[in-house]
């Protein structure tokens, strides 16, 4: 569904007229490619129809894969928001760039790829969610959400106007800013880097009215492992606090009104359960709230009626549906926005010389293993969507299965722009893969997660992942190893670390993991230093 119909028609018309001029913008375009980096927050690959048709249709995001390349094995180095962004910007693993978790400060004296592109003559702009606690360096223009941002009537920190508040739905506002910049501020004499960064579909998953009206009526397919009891895995899976039934907020997440919780005698899940609802839903203006209540009011009424007779299993199922309705509904506006940006580029002759990337800061659990959130090295959070279009370089409709990482973006963009990357960056350029040259690429990736003890209680762990296996070491308050056979056990239900049949695999992978730790300059000493700093920060 389209919004702002008039405005969009207007933009398309301007684009059409521009395309009819004897000299098009495209002919004037410099050789170095433009780069549009589209990233959403917590967007699971399971919720993109180019990856899976089970849950949601995302026709616009899919356009990037249809015209370009789908990466079926893209993954992150540390599955959490701000650290992923730091890895993307610096091209270095968390333990080297220092942003190991959401709380640690980002050292702004570090070199990032946008600073390099800007210095080399690129025009640079960033709109949406950065989540660093400090402003981005190397940008001619930016409007970013403070911290996590909000879904309705958001505040923005801007380069030129200070902190502003804008009325409206955040996803659409970020799209508008992006289109506006392309239309009014883009310098046709220069190549550009545009970072279009959505807050959606991050918790608390508030869709736009045009989508919640529709999505709250839908029923979604349940994952096979919704009722996982975590047998067959270690302490980390058993102790994680990400279960839909037991750890999801009733008001904040499932959108049960605080007064309905009181009436039914449902206690808050987390201490900020009702607070989260007030922070997000309470931010709506009167008209927005009336529209919301017209849909969520009846959901609450029905829940009130049914709740006394619902079993734990019924509740789990109900919460899964509620979760999917809001989570997937929030993505629908992202897909609309991506479509608008793609339409604009096409109408303005800007597609030929532009690399378009769509990705997420990490993956996400959509009820698999009974979970929401991310953090784990297990597939749903470790893998991330990645779709790239680059006409003339990438063959339309191609699929790459290699183990690419968010670590690779910085060097990829510098390579595409013909710029030598700093030697201390740790990724690999994906440009050869874009061209279908798949030899000599890495065969194993390194992963390290730190934020523990903290929200969701996922234990610290590092590990190695190859096409066939995944070996992880959980440490800090445990000392446990897990091995998964990725070919035989797609859902990662059985840790085979102790299975004698895998003794050789374990030995080999441990050796490779030790080599990777050395190659990437990680070490037990660094692990301990980060534990000490973490405890320091907590005080
Ligand atoms: C908030 C969320 C968590 C989420 C973290 C990190 N709780 O704390 O569920 O894991 O952000 O997310 S909330 O109730 O406050 O929304 S991240 O994407 O920023 O890493
Ligand atoms: Ca995130």
Q: What does this protein look like?
A:
With 539 residues, the chain is of the alpha/beta class. The protein has three domains: 41-205 and 330-436, Alkaline Phosphatase, subunit A (3-Layer(aba) Sandwich); 209-323, no CATH class; 461-538, Arylsulfatase, C-terminal domain (2-Layer Sandwich). 37% of the residues lie in helices and 14% in strands. The protein contains 18 helices and 14 strands. The strands form two sheets. It has a ten-stranded mixed β-sheet with strand order 6-5-4-3-7-1-8-9-2-10, sandwiched between helices. A hairpin with a 3-residue loop joins strand 5 (155-158) and strand 6 (162-165). Helix 3 (59-66) crosses helix 13 (312-347) and helix 6 packs parallel to helix 15. The longest helix has 36 residues, at 312-347. The protein is globular, with a radius of gyration of 23 Å. The N and C termini lie far apart (49 Å). The structure holds 2-deoxy-6-O-sulfo-2-(sulfoamino)-alpha-D-glucopyranose and calcium ion. 2-deoxy-6-O-sulfo-2-(sulfoamino)-alpha-D-glucopyranose (SGN) is lined by residues 41-42, 80-81, 102, 131, 148, 202-204, 252, 276, 373, 455-456.
